[in-house]
Amino acid sequence: MRKTHFSLVLFLMLFSSLQAQNTPKGTLPVIADKDLTAYLFVYFTGNTVEEEAVRYAISADGYHYYHLNNNKPVIDSKTISSTGGVRDPHILRGDDGKTFYMVLTDMTSSKGWDSNRAMILLKSTDLVKWESNVVNIQTTFPGNENLKRVWAPQTIYDAKAGKYLVYFSLQYAGGPDKIYYAYANKDFTALESAPKLLFVPKSERACIDGDIIEKDGVYHLFYKTEGGKAGIKVATTTDLTSGKWIENDNYLQQTQDGVEGSSVFKLNNSEDYILMYDVYTKGKYQFTKTKDLENFTVIDNDISMDFNPRHGTILPITRSELKRLMAKWGTPEKFPKINNNPVLEGYYADPEILYSNKTKKYYIYPTSDGFDGWSGNYFKTFSSDNLTDWKDEGIIVDLRKDVSWANRNAWAPCIVEKKIKGKYQYFYYFTAAQKVGVASSDNPTGPFKDSGKALVSTRPEGVKDGQEIDPDVFTDPKTGKSYLYWGNGYMAVAELNADMISLKKGTTKIIQVDNTYREGTYVIYRNGQYYFLWSEDDTRSPNYKVRYGVAKSPLGPIEIPKNNIVIQGNPAEGIYATGHNSVLQIPNKDEWYIVYHRFSYPTGIKMGDAGGFHREVCIDKLEFNQDGTIKQVLPTHLGIKAIK
């Protein structure tokens, strides 16, 4: 796993205890920026009742957009609104990363621009099914008899209040439109209190279509001025509800035509933002780019759409969310191919893969990564039917709750399925506090019960350096015996007893390897040969790679081929530090896959040492030459196709 002696590990634990992205220690980031790889555009299309409905489009790059569902509505306006139509959809990813909030103007323009008194609050966990509630401001809150209209609601999470703040423009008889706010209740089904004033420009002219984005602790409110010279302006504050705004006098639109419905989003894996707005007099959108939210450059020539949107918003989404949308509403014909690497979203490393004969599914058991100094303390597993779509099955071992002898540094697990007395059992070996433990279960997803003590806690006799980490379990198909391998700086092996939770006395030995060996032993058997794979270099190094040797016995000795690299980085594709692997053989086939981790793409190579604990899991094909040697694997972003 790493070239780190215990003293350095302890130092990292003491002084690097805060997890990346400011999430509490012991939890992974809600959504890692690296996993936001596509975009969802939510919009409506016009002023007829048929056009006043929520529609979806998707993009792989933020520049080229393709409609879903043949550009037909994805939500029936009549079932969610009080007027029969909806406009101005705004979508937000919740603070938990997995709940989505949408708010809509409850209105059809055929009844007049001053005809609506309500908005719609919607909530979803999958972007497909939505729960909705109508909030009528006039009938819900006293004193709103003179209310004429409720326009363009939006939502932002107010971290200071710990609530979702819904903001919108209201116009009362005889006055201009002003931007108000109210906090949503916990279930996002209603507003907690009557609207309060959020913002009105010093000119006291009408303002509508507010859109707030936070950058570096500053909230930027983009809005449209009405009356006099109309257009897009911005005001800033560090406290959403303070009423203290600094206004920028400049108009931000880069056109002389009428505009409305501005919206800002950040491009994935970039420091660039897009400010877009509805050029409603021309029936099109204009896109502009900025880094500072102050100076904007038109990029219309870079943008394409196969639809004509009105006032909408764009949400960065993950690959699994994109797949879910396309599974429901189809894949646009010209949409680019979807990469399948990394196979798991989030930061994970040291992947162990298993095919379960009991469930007929595949499972990945990784290190939970993304914690400074490799300080994670729990293990999860993921299941799949096809090797490309993986379901998070949750935590299977939490050192703090389930293990009495160690509570830190949960690293590099492995697992074996054994049929004992006609019943499948699973034995899960893991690293904790630089020792190797074992837990068992009747199911590949647990619950797992720890054996109660470390299986390996000291260095083998004669070994003066290294760590007792990175277990690998292998059952010899010739003899049925099972072996446990482990070590950092040395490769140790011992035979497991029939109970699979203890080592057979007197069987521990050191297998000699060359000086490329660091850690991460993995053993497979093919055509009479035992293949030993291991990782070279440091997991924090861009040159971390996998090598191999062959033997005629699971105990060695190992012969090392001349060209023995199994997989290494592909800098031309921005792929680095490909190491600590496991291997999958498709049952009853000479078909093989290598599962490994790499620096997170594209951010890991820029992180320095932190790239070594912000890793992601990938799968590529593993192939053999006719003479039994392993073909060097070229790591890819595309990954493998789904298997049947």
From TrEMBL:
This is Glycoside hydrolase. InterPro entries: Glyco_hydro_43, Glyco_hydro_beta-prop_sf, Glycosyl_Hydrlase_43_Enz. Keywords: Carbohydrate metabolism, Glycosidase, Hydrolase, Polysaccharide degradation, Signal, Xylan degradation. Residues 1-22 form the signal peptide. Pfam families: Glyco_hydro_43 (PF04616). One of its GO terms (biological process) is xylan catabolic process. Belongs to the glycosyl hydrolase 43 family. One of its GO terms (molecular function) is hydrolase activity, hydrolyzing O-glycosyl compounds.
